[in-house]
Structure formats: C-alpha cells, structure tokens
Amino acid sequence: MDGTVLVADDDRTIRTVLTQALTRAGCKVHATSSLTTLMRWVGEGKGDVVISDVMMPDGNGLEMLPKISEDRPDLPVIVISAQNTIMTAIQAAEAEAYDYLPKPFDLPDLMKRTAKALENRGRAPKREETVVGADEPDELPLVGKTPAMQALYRLVARVMNTDLPVLVAGESGTGKSLIAKAIHDFSDRRTLPFITVTGSDLADLEAPAKVLARVKGGTLLIDEIADIGDEVQARIVRMMDVPGEHVPRFMATTQYDPNTLMDSGKVRQDLFYRLDGATITVPSLRERVEDIALLTEHFLGRAEREGAPKRWLSKDAAELFRVYSWPGNVRQLENAVRRLSLTSLSEEISRAEVEAVLGNQPDTGPVLQGGDTEKLGTSVARHLRRYFDLHGAMLPPPGLHGRIIKEVEGPLIEIALEATGGNQAKCADLLGINRNTLRKKITDLDIRVTRRRKLM
Fold first, then answer.
1. Of 35, 120, 36, whose CA–CA distance to 74 is shortest?
2. How many CB atoms lie within 10 A of CB 201?
3. Kind and range of the H or E element at 195?
4. pLDDT per residue over 46-75, tens digit each?
5. Angle at 161 between CA 156 and CA 165, to 5 degrees
6. CA spacing 20 to 30 A to 8: which of 32, 33, 86, 273?
7. What single-letter DSSP state applies at residue 143?
8. Closest C-alpha to 33, from 17, 49, 14
9. Three-state SS at 262
C-alpha cells in the first residue's frame, strides 16, 4: 500500500497495532487519541485515508464526518466502533463514511478495506443527501456484535436509500419486520406511511387500490408472502406493476429459505422475481450465540426502564441462556427476560429460575432449517452461501477455510465429549483421531470438558 493513513482511537493498543500493521504494509501513519488533532491534520491537508473510532474523549467521530466531507470530499473515512448496533452502521452510512467496521475488528479485513480506500481515493461516490425526519426513533432493538449481524447492518445501510424491493427472510422471532421497518425509518421515504398487510388484507378485489391509496408512495410490507394464496399473489403482481407518481417501495417477509420459495411453489415465479431485488436473511439466535448476553442486558435494561426491579443473571443462569437452543429466537428471549425480571426472588436471577421459565417454553421447530431430511452438506452450503451474500460485492476476510473448519470442529468435539461423558479416550475413538490430537484440539479450540445439563 502507498499513502498516508490518519488513525484516531482512544485505545493505545489499537493505535499501536494499526500503526505497526500499516507501516509494514508501506504506509505512513499519524496516530492520535484526539479528534481535535485529527481535524487539525485534515485541515492541513494531511492523510489519504482516515480510520477513526466513534466514541472519543473529546467528541463523537461520526459528528466530524460532515466537516471532513465538506473540506476534503475525496478523503475516505473508515469508521470503527464498539457500538454494535444497527444505528451506528446506518449513521455511518448517512454521514457518508467510506466504510464501517465493528470492534473487535478483523485486522486483515481492515487492511484490505484500507488498501481499497487508498486505491479509490479521489473517486469515492457521493451518496444522495438524506434529510433526517423529526420522528426518527432514538433506539432500535437490533443489537449484535457477531459478524453475521454486522454484515446484516452494512447490507441494510446499503439498500435503505434505493428503490429496490426487499425480501426479508428468517425464522419466526428473528426480527424480520423490525429490519423492514428500520430500512423505511432511515430511508428517504421516512416521512411517508409504512403499511403492513397480510393475504387477508388483499383478498377483496378492490383492496389493492385501497392499500396503494393508504401507502401514498411510502413503504408497503407484505407479511409472510409464502402463506398467501396464488390468486392473491397474482393480485400483488398486478399491484406492483401499476404505474403512477406515488409508487411505494415493496418489501415482503418469509420464514422459508428464499432459495426454495419458487421451486417449491410457495411463491409464484413472476412475483418472486419482482420481490427479489435485494434479499436479506436475518440469522437465528443459534447462529449468533455471542449476541445472547448483549441482548439479555438490553432487555433487562428495557424492563427496568419500564418499572421492573433491577436484575442481572447469575453466572450459571447466563451459561444456560448461552447453551439453550432458543427455537423462538429473539422474541422468545425477550419474553423470557421480561418474565424473569418480574418474577425473580432476588436481584440476581438464578439458574433454577431460568430453568423453570425455559422449561415451560413451547418447542417451536425452525422453518429455515429445511426439515429433518436435509443433508448436512446441503445445510452447510446454504449457510456458506448466505455468509458470502451478506458481504455484498466484497469477499469475506482472508482465512475463510480455517474459520469454517473451526466453526464445525468445535461443536463436533463438544457434542462427542458430551456423548462420551467427558471420557477423552472414548471420544478420540469415536472421532477416529489420536488422543493427543484430541487434547490439542480441545486446548486450541478452548473447549470446556464438562457435561452440560439438559433441560427436562
């Protein structure tokens, strides 16, 4: 890489790591813990790329982006932030940041994005100006620090100000409608209506015209498109083809794998092609286990603000939350936390109280799993394809093979250890590997050799 990079972060370790990595890559680096110093450097014409944290001791990194854009419109700014919410990603997009990465970031990925920014400096496309509506929500319950959620946030930020129809897929309770509403609330259509309809709302022959009159060029969300009959689906096709000055943006949700909707006959071919402008798949809670603690803290805080006593999970209770399958996803988690916040006998919620609540939860089977007959290879291919899709036009960070092997190998060894009661000799024999090899993998993958308690 060739160029000068300005780094602003209040974490000394991050400044040191980035300075060393960028210097080895051939860049000149100026690093600071102050936004004031950063803006002085920018005003002096220094730097070809900026890498900046959001929360700094002397201000908010996002708030300085308009000034940089005004003074140096060709200077790319990469925002890095520990605030792992959809709000940060969208605000970074609205402030015309060149790119956004959550903390902890993948260093090779950041280096790759920095190199691309240096190559494209002076040619960065300008986004259309977005006017923030007075009724913009202060907070959205869409939080997550896992790569899957961060990639989802970036995809939402990319599509929100386009007119592309959007198909939002995901299991029940993952937040599909929330994603659709977020796209509308932060888009150029935010001051216009957001209308959600089901198949029954469109059953009457005159219903499409009435719905179009209500939405008035805003956003029309069709809930669970695969559950709507063929006749009504044909009506939706005609509604989407109606010309006019106030054509709405169309979005739809589905619990089914979008790759099977057309072939299985659940959605008409002509309707599928009209809706499939951009597909967003919301990951299940099982696919982002590391977000469970973050979501739990969020819901406990919300319950407290609504009048419930202050609560927190004990260590054992938090571990049970982490290993539970959550068939009802985020909605089930929220309901469980809300109930525990009201019924717990002390400030610290015990494992026994969590077991009592989760033991009464309905075991709703996930739809997107594809059924019990789906082959493992098919399931893996589906998840990998979605992982690539979430990165949009960019490739995933280097080292993909190692990360995927680790993702598969870790659960395999954990389950095998459970099945053999923690006996490493039996586990090694079951897996067909040497016992010393098993021990090394347990250490490398940081696997706890304990037998998990099962919910009855």
1. 120
2. 17
3. strand 194-197
4. 899 999 988 888 888 888 888 888 888 889
5. 75
6. 86
7. B
8. 14
9. coil
